[in-house]
Amino acid sequence: MKRILALALAGLLPLAALHAQTLAVVDMEKALAHHPNTPNDQKLLESTLAEYTKERDALRADIDRRMDERDQALKDAQNPMLAPAKADELRKLAEDKTRDIEAAIRRADAQMAERSNTLSEMERNLIKRTTDEILAHIEAYAKENKLDLVLYKNVVPYAKDGLDITDRIIARCGGTPPKADAAKDGAELAPPAKSGLPAKPAN
Question: Does residue 151 sit in helix, strand or coil?
Answer without folding.
Answer: strand
